[in-house]
Amino acid sequence: MIRRLAPLAAVAALSACLTTGSEDRTAPDAATPITGARTAAGAPDFALPPVTLPPATPPASGFAPPAVDDGRAYSLPELIDIAQRANPLTQAAWERAREAAAAVDIAESAYLPQLSANVLAGYGRASSFVPAVPPLLPDGRFTVDGLTVTPNVAFEWLLFDFGRRDAARQIAQEATVGANVLFQGAHQRVIFEVASAYYRYNAAREDTRIARARVADAGTLRAMAVGRRDAGLGTAVDVAQTRQIEARTRFELTLAENRERDAYARLMRAMGLGPTTRIEVTDLAGRRLPAEVPLEIETLIEGAVARRPDIQAALAAVRASEAGMALAAAERRPAVLAVGEAGRAYGRFRLDDDRLPGSARVSDNLADAAVGVLVRMPLFDGGLRDAQARRAQARAAAARRDLDALRTVAATEIVEAYDLLRTSLAAHAASGPLLAAANEAYAAVLGFYDNGLATLAEVSVAKTAVNDARMVRADAFADAFIAAAALAFATGDLTSVDAVP
After folding, report:
1. pTM of the predicted structure, to 2 decimals
2. Calpha distance 409→207 (Å, rounded)
3. 414 and 491 Cβ atoms separated by less than 8 Å
């Protein structure tokens, strides 16, 4: 009894060791660090030890970006060209497309015969009881043992499988279509993100210029106030007010310069470059905007949805999921294969009869060849095929729902981008009269000030209004370009640098 229980006790002890080991490999609870570390004040410390990262993967062939020339300014098309070759997202999308293409080759290999070379080597021993041969030999035992080596070449060719290979190939082909579409979409997204970051950087840079002009204007006002005070025409209060204005403009300049640096870092990130990379960028001077959106929203939506990469990729996923249903159905049917093998068996055996003295040794060398047809029919698999069929049906239904949802999202994004562009164009058009009125008011107030009819505070307010109007116009100008790029991206038309607004 003890001998019977010993194996069970060993298994139980081994299971306990395995269970204990798995618990030791993670945190004891959800609020404790894995290492149990705590700070000097006793707080849980979730810091991670440093690891050695592999070196950055060099760009694939054809993706290496050109060297940046510090002595020239780069236009938006040139920045996009650098980004398309330097951004890891485009390279990753390309590798995924290559992976999907290789999957098609894998699926198509099932149509060809499979050849393999095999070598079976081993030791065998057989023993059997031998009855007596009266009166010559008593009962005994005959034993054969020895080594065998059997090399052979085997082939297997799937002849018919009720569409299983066709379905698998279609799944791989649709995955390739989706991967290629997403590769195109990755480039479209890079174009959009670089263009948007370029426009935002130009707006931030113009805001910084305006902020510097404000500082210069404030310094001029302060000098004027000091001069009038020294001439007995002004007061110390006027000088203090201008110094306050100058201090505020310097503070605003600091904020503007920080926004410009942030916008530049976002541009470098969109291009796939490090934030410390220095590239001179051209401005938006000379660019013109249309007075209104050239097309109606219904016209845009009608043909745009089918051009979007995400829609086309979702459609490929639907077709792949439908092929998955066909594959699950084919798994229930038999498969017919042609099989064969040819080889030779080498053996060396020892024959031993305990009734006779000594033993005999035999060497064997036999050729072997066989060809046949194999019919493989699944009979019972514990419900595996039923579960696979249900999973394929659910996956196909989900893919169709995803496509419907993306259609709604695409139409919504187009409408939002259209409205944003229309609003931005209207805002830019309205900013022109605003700037003109601000300049006119400033000129009038400055004339009054020269004649002693206006205060420095009124001059400062008027000049601030001019700079505010300039900033509003510059921001509206950049916003309109960003909205135009967003509309082109939402409609699937932002396919090259030539399509960038």
Report:
1. 0.82
2. 34
3. yes
Instruction: From residue 394, give the alpha-carbon distance in Å to each of 176, 182, 316, 401.
Output: 22, 24, 16, 11
User: Burial code of 439-449, b = ≥16 C-beta within 10 A, e = fewer?
Assistant: eebbeebeeeb
Instruction: Count Cα atoms within 13 angstroms, Cβ side, for 342.
Output: 2
- Beta strand 73-74 pairing with 280-281: parallel
The CA-based angle 384-389-394, given to 5 degrees, is 125
356-396 per-position pLDDT tens digit: 787 888 888 888 899 999 999 988 888 888 999 999 999 99
CA gap 190, 307 in Å, rounded: 17
CA geometry: angle 312, 314, 317, nearest 5 deg:
115
Closest listed residue to residue 445, CA positions, set 279, 217, 131: 217
Rounded Cα–Cα distance for residues 335 and 466 (Å): 82
What pLDDT score does 9 carry?
61
Pairing of strands 335-353, 140-160: antiparallel
Please say whether the dihedral angle defined by the alpha carbons of residues 190, 192, 195 and 200, taken in this order, is positive or negative: negative
Torsion 76-79-84-85 (CA) sign? positive
* In contact, 187 and 195? CB cutoff 8 Å: no
Tell me how far the alpha carbon of residue 58 is from its chain's centroid: 18
Domains, in order of start, for the chain: 76-112+161-334+384-499 (1.20.1600.10), 114-159+335-376 (no CATH)
Helix ranges (H only) for 331-450 are 384-450
pLDDT in tens, 157-208: 999 989 899 999 999 999 999 999 999 999 999 999 999 999 999 999 999 9
> 30 near 44, Cβ under 8 Å?
no
- Which positions ≥6 away from 454 have C-beta within 8 Å? 445, 446, 448
Q: And the tokens for 26?
A: 């993670």
Residue 479 is encoded by which pair of tokens?
A: 């916003």
